[in-house]
Amino acid sequence: MNLYLITFQSALNKIESVYDCHKDLFMEIEKFFTLHLVPYTEAANIPANAYRMAFIASGGVERIVTQHFELLPYPIHLLTDGQHNSLAATLEIATWLRSKGMKMHIIHGTIPNMVKQLVDHHKAFAAQREVKGKRIGVIGYPSPWLVASNVDYLLAKRRWGVEFIDIPIEEIYCLFYQIEDDDIGYEASIFANRAIACREGSPEDLLKAMRLYRAVRIICEKKKLDAVTLSCFSLIEKLGTTGCLALSLLNDEGIPAGCEGDLQAIFTMLIAKTLTGQSGFMGNPAFINDNRNEVVITHCTIATQMTDRFIIRNHFETETGIAIQGILHPGGITMMKCAGECLDEYFVSTGQLTENTNYINACRTQVRIKLDKSVDYFTRNPLGNHHIVLMGDHEKVIHEFMQLNSCKLVE
Fold first, then answer.
1. Residue spans in the chain of domains classed CATH 3.40.275.10
2. pLDDT at 342
3. What is the pLDDT of residue 10?
């Protein structure tokens, strides 16, 4: 990974001495990046689309930076280790930038902390480029109850470079009927053997669910989809099965796959996968305990790779088909959601998964989460229904990515 530091150094200091003066920081950076120190006068020579950032190497450069701020990627990040009055200069520059209405962030602190911030920012930078050109398949149409989860396809493409592709659900029906049980019998038996129990669902139900998985998988390959959302409830009357198993297996394979045709949720899952490499659990907030700052998130499908073990169930609302009750490992999580018609709002919070619940009046996979932010968010200013849960702490890199794309944090 290349890092080009656009270096601002006082005329009182020789540019040749920059490395030696900041050696401790640079040596740590070089454990993660190939470092290029570029005087601001030569910034035009940096390759297009390269990862670059301002480095304030000393005091006395305030006016130079404000005269050449157009050289810096936006939103502006200012890296400084404090040597040679560089922090004082950075604070003055930052105040000037803010007074002009520009977003900026200072990277300063202990050397390990600064380098971690650089690594997180680079992940966001790389993800921003990786997302461009991604194709999200919308099989069928969003469920009618998702009245606040619309996405303007044109605005999303202009803002993110992501393309939403409508696919008639009849294409799934056609493929489903072409697939023979013998084509998927072996896969079905493997899946059944991986479960710790089967509480509902017959072998015929499992074969139907696996045929649907194969049909959706063929569509993903045929349409070159990077993610997919499925109009699950439309399938029940026609095929007598749900998409829970199909979505679980697709997520296991690294293809973000979401329920109910929820456009905002599947975009969130795609972003989460791009940033962290993880599949996310898309779920409904089912119960909130404001005294304990807890929320229970539930749904009938989850990537089995996210679970310690799982049980084969049927779909909660319809009591048909195959669903999955995943048992997740307690520990740190991150919850996120992207929203808005052009996907320019977001929520993110870390928390602790404390319990796998088993309420009879909720979807099959259920997790109790103690959030680090207030659960009042859900009752006061929610971003719709479905939210995405990731294992581990990814809050900073998500913030970096969303702020890099000038999105509004909702809390």
1. 135-409
2. 94
3. 86
pLDDT in tens, 55-93: 999 999 999 999 999 999 888 999 999 999 999 999 999
Q: What is the pLDDT of residue 234?
A: 82
Across the range 199-206, mean pLDDT stands at 93
Confidence band, pLDDT 50/70/90 cuts, at residue 120: very high
User: What does the mean pLDDT of the chain come to?
Assistant: 94
Structural contact between residues 385 and 304, judged by C-beta atoms closer than 8 angstroms: no
Task: Give yes or no for a contact between 401 and 275, defined as CB atoms under 8 angstroms apart.
Answer: yes
Residue 363 CA: distances (Å) to CA of 53, 86, 175, 322 = 46, 55, 28, 12
pLDDT at residue 357, as a whole number: 97
Comparison of pLDDT for 10 and 355, the residue scoring more: 355
pTM of the predicted structure, to 2 decimals:
0.91
Q: What is the 3-state secondary structure (H, E, C) of the chain?
A: CEEEEEEECCCCCCHHHHHHHCHHHHHHHCCCCEEEEEEHHHHHHCCCCCCEEEEECCCCCHHHHHHCHHHCCCCEEEECCCHHHHHHHHHHHHHHHHHCCCCEEEECCCHHHHHHHHHHHHHHHHHHHHHCCCEEEEECCCCCCCCCCCCCHHHHHHHHCCEEEEECCHHHHHHHHHCCHHHHHHHHHHHHHHCCEECCCCHHHHHHHHHHHHHHHHHHHHCCCCEEEECHHHHHHHHCCCCHHHHHHHHHCCCCEECCCCHHHHHHHHHHHHHHCCCCEEEEEEEEECCCCEEEEEECCCCHHHCCEEEEECCCCCCCCCEEEEECCCEEEEEEEEECCCCCEEEEEEEEEEEECCCCCCCCEEEEEEECCCCHHHHHCCCCCCEEEEECCCHHHHHHHHHHCCCEECC
Q: What is the CATH number of domain 2-131?
A: 3.40.50.10940
The CATH code of the domain at 135-409 is 3.40.275.10
Is pLDDT at 146 greater than 80 in this prediction?
no
Position 237 scores a pLDDT of 81
